[in-house]
Amino acid sequence: MSRNEFAPLPSAATARYWAATRERRLLLQWCPNCERHVHHPREACPGCLSTELQWRESAGRGTVHAVSVHYRPFAPMTAEDCPYAVAFVDLEDGVRFLANVTADDLEAIRVGDPVSLQWSPIADGYHLPVFHANAH
Ligand SMILES: [Zn+2]
Hints:
This protein has a single domain (8-133), classed as CATH 2.40.50.840. The chain has one helix and eight strands. It has one helix at 15-21; strands spanning 26-31, 36-38, 54-58, 62-70, 84-91, 96-102, 114-121, 127-133. The chain has a five-stranded mixed β-barrel with strand order 4-5-6-8-7. A hairpin with a 5-residue loop joins strand 7 (114-121) and strand 8. The radius of gyration is 15 Å and the shape is globular. Zinc ion is lined by residues 31, 33-34, 45, 47-48, 50. Zinc ion (ZN) binds at residues 31, 33-34, 45, 47-48, 50.
């Protein structure tokens, strides 16, 4: 199975998130009680346990918090992607997001680099958010 054949299995808590990826829109949960975003999608706010979480669209802009470049596949489905970079991205929305990061030169990606959102198609019309690190 390659990465393009991967399909998520949305739960009640993640269905809106995954449905929006079909339109290449990144949705984050918003807690009106704490007035902050919540990610990953879940049933209740980790700060106040409110179940009144709302959805807001993210522009997908942020910076690299940490990055790791992988030369050996984590699983057979990632073999064709090697080498690839995985990073924690601090979105302007205030959440830390784990995703693949692309760049002209993966080894040149640095902590603090600005990134922008792109999309990688997977099965059933869904997409995975991928961030592109801008060149120095
Ligand atoms: Zn809250």
